[in-house]
Design goal:
This protein has 433 residues and is mainly beta. The protein is 11% helix and 37% strand. It has helices at residues 49-59, 64-67, 97-110, 161-177, and strands at residues 6-7, 34-40, 81-87, 119-124, 135-139, 147-152, 207-211, 214-218, 221-223, 228-230, 241-249, 256-263, 269-276, 283-284, 287-289, 295-301, 309-318, 321-324, 328-331, 334-342, 349-356, 362-370, 377-378, 382-385, 391-398, 406-415, 420-422, 426-429.
């Protein structure tokens, strides 16, 4: 069984609004790509494309052209090419994406590959196959959960090695930055434009690019840092660092936030935050950073539920690469559910519920109450301490209320760390015993 196939032609997209966003995969990329090539049913090779393709993949690592992908967390080191296989089995005249994906899996078994998102298989189709746009996708079966692969059509349909090189560079870059098609893309306008698509019809036209001493016809790639297409990026040092990361809840709201001091070594960059209620996260955000050191990034997500524990980690990126903080958690501070219960005696009512502070910290709870939303009366401050999950229980009995009267009440909290919040206005009717 194979994953969905997304066809991405060589030059099939107008330049979208940008930038490239980390997608639901949270910026997943091939950090140490290893490229394998399978030549499927090559009984002829009129343009010597076999050797040309191998040469391109051998030369592309550790070049300014490929280094543009470092900002997305992709590995751009030398020696990404590993091996090739001449598979003599018969290829269909017009293979489907599923059939091409199965050939990628056949190659994975031939090369005895371990399961790894960093493996990438180029399925080089022969000149006897009906030509169409090259593409990349990911295949899977009972052994391999995901095998990133390309379907590369012979000489890219017009018999030109130049366009063949352009197509391979396009798909190689996109498979490295979006290996299972849930990562770096520009969704503006309802599209799905990856780093190659983004520059498919750029005014910066394809041209010869020197890849470690050999010229190949390549297209530019999109750079978030430049906000434009480029033929190369210079790596000047190590990746940035994300030093101090904090998270919490803004006083008087349930707006949770994460903030990080990002050391960008004096150059421009960007960051993305992953967060969710488990260590699988599920939500990603993106923001550009100006050039500088220790730039403060802060993100707020509104209407977070008090008491919810969030996992988060922060990615920071510049032209030299990307780094990520360890998984961390925080509890959303605030007032949780509050309830009332009639007690023995005339007009006696207890208010009880839960409030949330940072785990194992202390604070106070007060209950304002009265016949209107102006309240007018208040309980004394009730001292509470949160448990290891951040939850603290409170209760207060109000006595001598007028039976049958509707009372308004509001739970208010103050933490030892200075957090202040008030719950919603609620009501109860004082009962007679």
């Amino acid at each position: 069984m194979l994953g969905a196939v997304s066809v991405a032609g060589v030059a099939n997209a107008a330049i979208p609004g940008g930038p490239e966003l980390p997608g639901s995969g949270g910026g997943l990329a091939q950090t140490a790509p290893k490229i394998y090539v399978v030549f499927w049913d090559w009984t002829s090779d009129p343009f010597s494309a076999h050797d040309d393709l191998i040469s391109l993949v051998q030369h592309v690592g550790n070049t300014p052209w490929l280094d543009t992908l470092a900002q997305y967390g992709a590995g751009t080191q030398a020696n990404i090419y590993q091996n090739y296989w001449n598979d003599s089995s018969t290829a269909p005249t017009n293979p489907t994406g599923t059939q091409i994906g199965q050939e990628a899996l056949n190659a994975a078994y031939h090369f005895v590959l371990a399961q790894s998102i960093n493996s990438q298989i180029v399925v080089a189709l022969p000149p006897t196959v009906t030509c169409r746009s090259s593409f990349h996708s990911a295949g899977y079966d009972s052994h391999y959960s995901d095998v990133p692969f390309q379907g590369l059509f012979y000489a890219s349909c017009d018999g030109s090695l130049n366009v063949y090189n352009q197509a391979e560079g396009h798909e190689l870059a996109e498979a490295m930055t979006d290996p299972i098609q849930n990562s770096w893309n520009d969704p503006s306008g309802g599209g799905y434009n990856e780093v190659g698509d983004h520059c498919g019809t750029s005014s910066l036209l394809p041209n010869y690019v020197n890849l470690n001493g050999t010229n190949f016809w390549m297209q530019p790639l999109y750079s978030n840092i430049l906000g434009d297409c480029t033929f190369g990026t210079t790596i000047t040092g190590g990746p940035p660092t994300a030093a101090t990361t904090i998270a919490g809840t803004s006083s008087g709201t349930t707006n949770a936030y994460v903030a990080v001091n990002a050391n960008l070594n004096g150059v421009a960059g960007f960051g993305w935050l992953e967060y969710g209620t488990t260590a699988s996260y599920g939500t990603s955000t993106y923001t550009p950073f100006p050039a500088g050191n220790n730039d403060l990034f802060s993100y707020q997500f509104p209407n977070a539920t008090p008491g919810t524990s969030y996992h988060y980690r922060m990615h920071v990126s510049d032209a030299n690469g990307a780094t990520v903080t360890a998984d961390q958690t925080f509890v959303v501070n605030g007032v949780g559910p509050a309830y009332t219960s009639a007690q023995p005696g005339v007009g006696n009512t207890i208010v009880y519920g839960a409030v949330f502070f940072d785990p194992s910290t202390s604070g106070t709870v007060t209950i304002a109450f009265g016949a209107t939303t102006g309240y007018g009366s208040s309980s004394p401050a009730l001292n509470v301490t949160a448990d290891s999950t951040g939850r603290a229980i409170f209760s207060y009995e109000s006595t001598g209320l007028t039976p049958g009267t509707t009372y308004h009440y509001q739970v208010r909290i103050s933490s030892s760390g200075g957090y202040l919040d008030a719950g919603p206005d609620q009501t109860f009717v004082a009962q007679s015993s």
